[in-house]
Recover the amino acids of this structure.
């Protein structure tokens, strides 16, 4: 009997699983994004509306994560963490060394969380992204606190809408079982000791966390020194692409670069041909956000395509030309992908930490 032919990495990277389309999640999660965008259309509340949107948009993906018996826990923790990290990032925006050290530290936590599964990794990734986004925009302490507050408001609105919707139409975490307790007879103190012991003795995991943190710190320094503008895409892309296994990093790099280029080019062509006003841009963000939620588990390249176009339109709402935003994002993605591949070579010991599912 012949063994089954192994699918090539490139073909696997661009395989579309349309059965995983998340229509219910898209319909529900887009509501909070649209509501937040409405506030941004009023000139006096542009920054508040944008901050709320940046809180609501990523929180919607938390509907598919599960940390405990409390189904909304990932979204609640994501909102709180993004609010705090967003304020901290804004406060450190003018401090290059502080941004690099703190940004690298949060990324290291994200890297270490990888060994505990998809949900902890996703949760800490949102904290890191919130810090990186906020650190790219100079702010005083009052603006920093207000940014964190509105990010929290947007995340809270998203969580509330999803929890209410779960009562009528369960989806995502509402349809999954709570994580099984690997040691039900173990006391809470014993579980804490076990986690700490695992953290200290897990050399491969610590190595991966150190590489992830160092990579993000270097990415922050590079994008600031190159004066890229919207250069937060460099560390953000690098952290998202980096995976514990080298092959997974290469596959994710191919998917993200292809999706980003296609999304950036498409958004730019639309802007050149249509020349949209703020109403059209906001409508485009809503449609693209819906598509991003829908294809999040279909294929990572498709996900990168829709999220790139979404962010290009979001940036355009703040006044930056779409073509310039798309060009900057493409350059930053290329640099971030190169850093992730290089870091992946360093973070691939013989005994690798467990990859997020």
């Amino acid at each position: 009997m012949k063994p089954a032919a192994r699918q090539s990495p490139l073909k696997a990277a661009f395989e579309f699983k349309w059965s995983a389309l998340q229509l219910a999640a898209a319909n529900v999660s887009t509501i909070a994004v649209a509501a937040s965008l409405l506030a941004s259309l009023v000139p006096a509340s542009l920054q508040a509306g944008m901050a709320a949107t940046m809180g609501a948009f990523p929180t919607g993906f938390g509907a598919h994560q599960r940390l405990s018996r409390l189904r909304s826990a990932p979204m609640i923790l994501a909102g709180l963490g993004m609010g705090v990290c967003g304020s901290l990032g804004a406060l450190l925006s003018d401090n290059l060394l502080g941004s690099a050290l703190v940004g690298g530290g949060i990324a290291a936590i994200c890297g270490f969380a990888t060994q505990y599964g998809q949900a902890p990794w996703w949760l800490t990734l949102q904290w890191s992204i919130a810090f990186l986004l906020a650190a790219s925009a100079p702010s005083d302490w009052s603006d920093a606190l207000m940014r964190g507050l509105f990010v929290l408001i947007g995340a809270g609105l998203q969580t509330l809408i999803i929890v209410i919707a779960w009562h009528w139409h369960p989806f995502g975490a509402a349809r999954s079982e709570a994580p099984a307790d690997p040691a039900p007879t173990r006391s809470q103190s014993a579980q804490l000791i076990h986690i700490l012991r695992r953290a200290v003795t897990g050399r491969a995991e610590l190595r991966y966390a150190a590489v992830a943190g160092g990579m993000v710190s270097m990415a922050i320094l590079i994008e600031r020194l190159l004066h890229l503008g919207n250069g937060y895409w460099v560390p953000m892309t690098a952290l998202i692409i980096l995976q514990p296994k080298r092959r997974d990093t290469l596959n994710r790099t191919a998917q993200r670069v292809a999706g980003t280029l296609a999304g950036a080019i498409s958004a730019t062509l639309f802007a050149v041909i249509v020349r949209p006003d703020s109403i059209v841009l906001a409508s485009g963000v809503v449609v693209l956000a819906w598509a991003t939620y829908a294809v999040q588990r279909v294929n990572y390249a498709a996900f990168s395509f829709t999220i790139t176009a979404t962010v290009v339109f979001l940036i355009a709402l703040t006044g930056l030309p779409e073509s310039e935003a798309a060009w900057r994002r493409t350059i930053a993605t290329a640099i971030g992908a190169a850093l992730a591949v290089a870091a992946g070579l360093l973070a691939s010991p013989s005994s690798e930490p467990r990859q997020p599912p």
